[in-house]
Amino acid sequence: MTDAIGMIGLGNMGGHIATGLLEAGFGCVIHDASHARMEALVARGAVAAASPKAVADLCPIVMSCLPSPEISRVVACGEAGAAKGSAIVCYVEMSTIGLVAAREIAADLERNGIAFIDAPISGGPAAAEARTLTAMMSGSETAIDAVQAVMKAFCQTIYRVGGLPGQAQACKLVNNAISLTILALASEAAVFGVAAGLDADVMIDVVNSSSGRSAVTETKFPKHILKRRFDFGAALSIGEKDLKLFVEEARKLGSPTEITPVAARIWEAAGATSDPGQDMMTLIEWFERPLGVVVGRPRP
Fold first, then answer.
1. Catalytic pick among 53, 84, 152, 172
2. Is CATH 1.20.1050.40 the right assignment for the domain spanning 170-288?
3. CATH code of the domain occupying 5-164
4. Runs of H (alpha helix) within 227-281
5. What is the model's pTM?
6. Could you report the per-residue pLDDT of 2-32, keeping only the tens digit for each?
7. Cβ atoms of 2 and 87 closer than 8 Å
8. Is 227 a known active-site residue?
């Protein structure tokens, strides 16, 4: 198994990444809290491991894609964490966990002689499935060079944004703060437009031909909101977590936080009044509910 890649976390992103590795010809040793997720990939040729340590006992390169900083810390540095593995030489953290957690994990791994690459990914589950993700990477040039071929199995674009752990996290938080805040703003504005009598499809077409357009109105609204499909593949809780991380990290740096805390409160409220596990595109329902309007309509 010395040529196999370890993949820990097989959710909406990690499962597609592991599949991409297998399709690219890499051996893949996997671990996830869900046995069903592991079984689906074992059927495609992956090897299941009982713990993060067991993955790292078999693989020099171990990658993770996990839902929270707390889980990332346990997976990397816990009692049965990857840091305890006997084969691991490089750990690639693809989760969005913030600067503090990335630096703490990096320090723990490096004390064990393991290189740490900060490498959050962007594009969502659809891009993970299509192997067109964008990766932001920071860490040593040597370590990043060593994993380039692996990352290209599921990434279309790879940026090197710095040499230190946490710098790639900062870049990802910038992206997510913009995207998630715009989703809240666009939802609020779209509900106003429908309440004023506009056809939702025409309204979004106008925005996309005008100065208000963004990836949210060009992609997320037509694909997931106007059709009332709500199948983006990431939960409301992920949006809440990412905006909370941005606000916390910005305040530690003394960077102004005027707009993002408002957006973070909206994401938190949306999860609290429905189900934080719902698809994040259901955020618009938080704005629709008081007026009883619906932006878009189900399509056949």
1. 172
2. no
3. 3.40.50.720
4. 236-253, 260-273
5. 0.94
6. 579 999 999 999 999 999 999 999 999 999 9
7. yes
8. no
